[in-house]
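Today's session is about reading a structure prediction critically. Students often jump straight to the picture, but the first step is always the sequence itself: look for stretches that repeat, for charged clusters, for runs of hydrophobic residues. Only then move on to the predicted structure, which in these notes is written as discrete structure tokens rather than atom positions. Here is the chain we will use throughout the hour.
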Amino acid sequence: MFPPNSTMESSDAKRVALLAAALSSFLAPFMISAVNIAIPAIAARFHAGAVEVSWFATAYLLTMSMFLVPFGRIADIHGRKRVFIYGMFVYTASSLMAALSTSASMLIAARIVEGIGAAMTVGTGVAILTSVYPARERGRALGINIAAVYLGLSFGPFIGGFITDYLGWREVFLLNVPLGALIMALVIWKLKGEWAAARGERFDLAGAAIYSVMLVLIIYGLSLFGENAAAGSALAVAGALAVVLFAWREARVEHPVLDISLFRHNTVFAFSNIAALINYSATFAVTFLLSLYLQYTKNYSPFAAGLILVPQPLTMTVLSPFAGRLSDRIPPVYVASAGMAVTTLSLFFFIFLAAGTALTLIITNLVLLGVGFGLFSSPNTNAIMSSVEKRFYGVAAGTVGTMRTIGQSVSMGIALSVFAILLGNRQIVGGTYPLFLKSVRVSFIIFTASCLAGIFASLARGRSG
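Below is the predicted structure for this chain, in token form.
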């Protein structure tokens, strides 16, 4: 058993843990937003259609969703720092593979492996932070960590657009190699100690397999719905049955991969996760849709489109530490619910997006969306991590990450389904621009309705959340 207590009390350990977690939290969203900007260039290189284009992002998110909770459990048993280091190595190596891709299929395969590496690092970094920081300081630390996420989202479109314009889309992926090496070196040489609060417990391999298959069936079924409703519905129903099987099994094993009682008996944990799922489902595809809108409808270059999108995540970056500190002082439910309401209002305004919409209105609404999401995310994460015992930190962090990535996958799946219904797999060119714009507006209608429901899910956790 490693002795984490002395490490937890060290201010040096706090600083190193926060730096390592923040750097890794910066890296993943940076690459997501940078790749979103590069997608038109990648599509042109591989002659990819609208549905295939969406899978450049969805493959990564789906894989990450599948493995976040299982790797969170493995980290609780075998050591959070160890899993974090291995995951960063996998992420870095797969980024090199993506940069060297010679076909759309190879790139999608590289993104799948990249998703596995990200699953090993994203949740584990949050769990390490929660282990190191006491409850009275946790909101501030999580706020800084989430600010790093938004900083990555801020720089991704800007730097990704610049690199795509002047160097090429492959160099976007190559950026991961030195950054990943730096993070690994920092954790290996500077972060002392280990955290494994569930050491000695067994890993439920069968439960993890059911969990992963369950997510594939649901999310892939959603992605197929637009082009093949029968197949999509069949997979979604099979996924729903897998949910029942998973819940039945996990309630009966001694050491479940996900303790179902956390959802049944912990109202704060349950409704905070539901709120996170809804929020990400309603917001993640916004950058993807607006990136395509600005480049296709407005005829901006990738670099210019990236600059226009920066105000949203930049606003999130500024607000997240403030919102995190605020949630240390007042119940997170109030801050997070207000953020959800502001987000809903912004999504509603985007329903009226047209070819002639003024750029100033788009940027103003992006700032409003950034305010909403900045107020929601860190208080909601603080509520989740503070509602569980120490031995569940890895699983709880994995669940937070899973809600985020499932939400992101669902968000992309909604956009993908709308594209498939209205555009089919045709390329987005001049003749299909009206259908493309209609697809964007329909997507925002769906996102607004779901985020409105999310306000009530956020409030349902009660004052203690």
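Discussion point for the tutorial: Residues 48 and 104 are 7 Å apart (CA to CA).
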